[in-house]
Fold this protein.
Amino acid sequence: MDMNLNWLAIGVCTLLMFMGGAVWHGPIFGKLWMKIHHGDKKFTEEENEKLMQGMWKLMLTEFIASFLMIIGLACIIQAIPEYSGIRNALMIWVAFVLPTLASSVLWGGDKREWMFAKVAVTGSYRLLMLLLVGYILSVW
């Protein structure tokens, strides 16, 4: 099978997923996300600056991870053309993303009281983005 990927669509979808993550974990669920990871601790301006110093490495890693996930989804959409991009995205989320996420939260040292919230926030973000990207890749 010849894979001719639409690299422009993949690039646009990668940017969309990356920006969606910033909105999802910022204005939409940012306060909850901070509570999950830091409890009720209020950071000083100096502490916030220190936290942000290495943030570019995390952002770059997330950008690359999103890019690779979208390439994989694009390949699967082409390999299984009888399924819609949305259906392929849903299958990937159910079979790989959600179990991997749940496992990493369960075994990652998170506080038990926040495990469900962390899986719910991150899992719903990944589901929404994969469905959107699956749709875009199948129609572009």
Remarks:
- The chain has a mean pLDDT of 93.
- Residues 7-139 form one domain.
- The chain has six helices and no strands.
- Residues 44 and 50 are 10 Å apart (CA to CA).
